[in-house]
Write a structure and sequence with these properties.
Bound molecules: zinc ion
Number of helices: 7
CATH superfamily: Metal-dependent hydrolases
Number of strands: 8
CATH class: Alpha Beta
Strand content: 15-25%
CATH topology: TIM Barrel
Structural class: alpha/beta
Strand order of the largest sheet: 1-2-3-4-5-6-7-8
Helix content: 25-40%
Order of helices and strands: EEEHEHEHEHEHEHH
Amino acid sequence: MIGSAQKYLDIHTHRAVSGPDVFALQSCLSSAIPETGFFSAGIHPQDAGSVDCKEFENVWNDPRCLAVGECGMDRRYPDLPKQTAVFRIQAQQAEILHKPLLIHSVRTHEEIIRAAKELAPSVPWIIHGFRGKERTLFSLLDAGFFVSFGAGLLKDAGNMEPFFSRIPAERIFFETDADGATDIRAVYALAASMRGMAVDDLCNTVRENFRRIFQ
Ligand SMILES: [Zn+2]
């Protein structure tokens, strides 16, 4: 699936496409199946009130759809109970299809952790675009989550530096999300320096994480 020269893995992007040195997992927010490439598809919390999960059944079943999501909860948008219900339906779909779940969470990490404890998923749950405090991050890791970092790491490196190297390597991913200005190579370069390791070694670790949970 990943080309031998595609050393950088971008696990969540709305902009980038795969290239000679980048494997990008496109994130689709509609039920239209992309023409090419591998992707994830889900109902974003901002659309929880307006989209019917049934519309996504075809796209979720597509063999090029590797993960369900992004889905989740976000306190900036209305109706948290409805967001929770739509999130749980997608978590169940991920379980049925044996596909990882890509999660968007803004100030709802406690609710997401609670859902994980209740649903006890067998598929990996990945929090995308993590930005936040050490305590929050380690409660997610303790609960078994994978965590993906992107533009937030570039902006918040000073705050995250003291604990970034303690994140277990086998639970890390990186991403560019919707931010066209973020270069995935810059994210890896910063993360590798924060962990005191070579970029190539970090790339290999993340590709190994991907192979383990997506193939
Ligand atoms: Zn996104």
